[in-house]
Amino acid sequence: MPLMNSENKTTALLHRCCCLVAVLAVAVAVSSAPSFARDTDSRKVPCSGGGYRYLLFNPAEGKKTVPMPAILLLHGAGDQPENFLPAWKDLARKENIVLIAPELPLVPAFEDVAPQVFRCIVEDSKTTTNIDPRRVYIFGHSMGGYLAFDGAMLASEYFAAVAVHANLIEDKYIGIVDKATRKTPIALYIGDHDQFFTVRQVEQTRDLLLRKNFPVHYVELKHHDHNYYAISDRINQDAWDFLSQQRLPN
C-alpha cells in the first residue's frame, strides 16, 4: 500500500514477511506437496521491467468454451504457487474457474509494481485461455492478502472483487481506500486464534471499508488460526459464493 516513505515501508514489509514465513513454513511442511499436474501450465512473462513466473490452470483443457471467470491467487510469504493453486483445483473444476497463481517475490519493492504485474499476468493468461474480463477476481492469503488490497484499490476497474484471508489495512495505510475509482467488493476472513492479526484489527478494516461505501462480506472463523490450508475448502467455497456474484460494469 504505497503511502509511506521507502525506509518505513521496507522495514514494515520485511518485518511482516519474516514473521509470516515461520508460520507458513510449518503449514506447507505438513501439507503434501502436489506433483506438477498436466492440466497446469508454468509460464513466465515480462512485466514492469522484470520477469514473473506463474501457474495457469484451465478447467476447459484447451476446449472451446464460453468465457470463464478467473481468480488470481496470491500466496503467503514463504509459500509457493505449487502449494497454493491446488487448494482451489477441485472447486475450479466444479465451477469452471480459471486459476492464475503468480510466484510472489519477497522484496518490498515489488509492492510498487504489484497491481501492474497482476494485470500483466492476467492479460498473458488471456492469450491461451478464454477469460471473461468482467469476472476476474483476487484471492489473497496473509502477505498475498496485503497485496490483494493493492489490487482492490489501485486496479479497482480491472478486478471485479477481492477476498482476503488473514490480513488487514493498517492505520498508516488507510488512505489507500481513497485511491479506488470504483468501490471494489471485498470479502474478509479472520480466525479468532490468528497468531498475527486480531479479530478487532480486522473488524476495524471492515468498518473502514463500510464507512467508505465498499461492499463488504466479513467472516470470523471460530477456532481457526493463521493456517489457511487447515480449512481451505471451507474458505474457498465461501469466498467463491461471494466473488461469483460480482461483475464489472459493462
Can you characterise this structure?
By secondary structure, the protein is of the alpha/beta class. It has one domain: Alpha/Beta hydrolase fold, catalytic domain (Rossmann fold). Helix content is 37%, strand content 22%. It is built from seven helices and eight strands; from the N terminus they run H-E-E-E-H-H-E-H-E-H-E-E-H-E-H. The protein has helices spanning 6-30, 81-84, 86-95, 110-126, 143-154, 199-211, 232-243, and strands at 40-47, 50-57, 68-74, 98-102, 131-141, 161-165, 186-191, 216-221. An eight-stranded mixed β-sheet has the order 1-2-4-3-5-6-7-8, sandwiched between helices. Helix 4 packs across helix 5 (143-154). The longest helix has 25 residues, at 6-30. The radius of gyration is 17 Å and the shape is globular. It starts with 5 loop residues before the first helix and ends in a 7-residue tail after the last helix.
Gross geometry: globular
Helix content: 25-40%
How many strand segments? Answer: 8
Per the CATH scheme, the topology name is Rossmann fold
Mean pLDDT: 89
Largest sheet: 8 strands, mixed
Give a brief rundown of this model.
Helix content is 37%, strand content 22%.
Please supply descriptive tags for the structure shown above:
globular, 37% helix, 7 helices, 250 residues, single chain, disordered N terminus, alpha/beta, Rossmann fold
SSE blueprint:
Blueprint: H1 6-30, E1 40-47, E2 50-57, E3 68-74, H2 81-84, H3 86-95, E4 98-102, H4 110-126, E5 131-141, H5 143-154, E6 161-165, E7 186-191, H6 199-211, E8 216-221, H7 232-243
Parallel strand pairs: 3-4, 3-5, 5-6, 6-7, 7-8
Antiparallel strand pairs: 1-2, 2-4
